């Protein structure tokens, strides 16, 4: 039982590093996966594990091709490959336990768990799920089939891959990982947590409607410059918005949709983007701040409630959504060219 708890906790650590860290921590994930395989290499049916990995990657490739899943890269991300390697190892570790039960029990439960893990990953910003109920139904079927495939594949294997010493090593690493993970965050491609707060201001602008002040916006970058290219976010940026009136989540979503339509985005593009932002946007009160920080490809939202600490509230994994959101303020085709000019430093 102790071994089962250790290996399950170890896999969950890898899952959270993959889903929360995505592109930032993907090399940490691969290092942990390599360490995991090295610890238990002598008892691993390597070719069978790779068969599981290739099957999973093939199915995810199909999911992306048919528009069910969307990642911020044109190819499957490296962290997803690492996660499938981790899953194959974990499935083999669990095999002696789950083989005791009927396929009719194990497969549906695994199908549900698999589909929900993708949903959780999407909620945490690792990917985007389009046509949610259709996608979850397809994922459920896929994971039922993967489970049956895994059980049949490993049915001739007798060994249990985590021996006592290996379990002790993994337990020690589980205790150390929170500290090593925080160190890695400061070395990642995505701006380190709160590092952007020290960036110089590129420009700032006030937005008002009639006699009412709505918000003050500031654009920051590592060198205090905005490089104008066809790409809206060609380099790391932080957009800070200090609100000067109460605004609900629904109003934020409505205003965002309105601006996207004016920029020429189609309803088919906008609908999944709004669904993602609906999970992130808060209800904002007067004097509160919303900040969007991007590395030029993906982004993170931060919210500063009145009288509290600034907090991370959501991640954007799609480069398309990243550019579309920033286009509201930074696109030359935007509704408010004077506001844009001030933000990008043209009117200093």
Automatic annotation (TrEMBL):
Record's keyword terms, sorted: Membrane, Transmembrane, Transmembrane helix
The residue ranges crossing the membrane are 12-34, 46-68, 74-94, 101-121, 133-154
| Protein name (database record) | Chalcone isomerase domain-containing protein
| Native organism | Vibrio marisflavi CECT 7928
Query: What taxonomic classification does the UniProt entry list for its organism?
Result: Bacteria, Pseudomonadati, Pseudomonadota, Gammaproteobacteria, Vibrionales
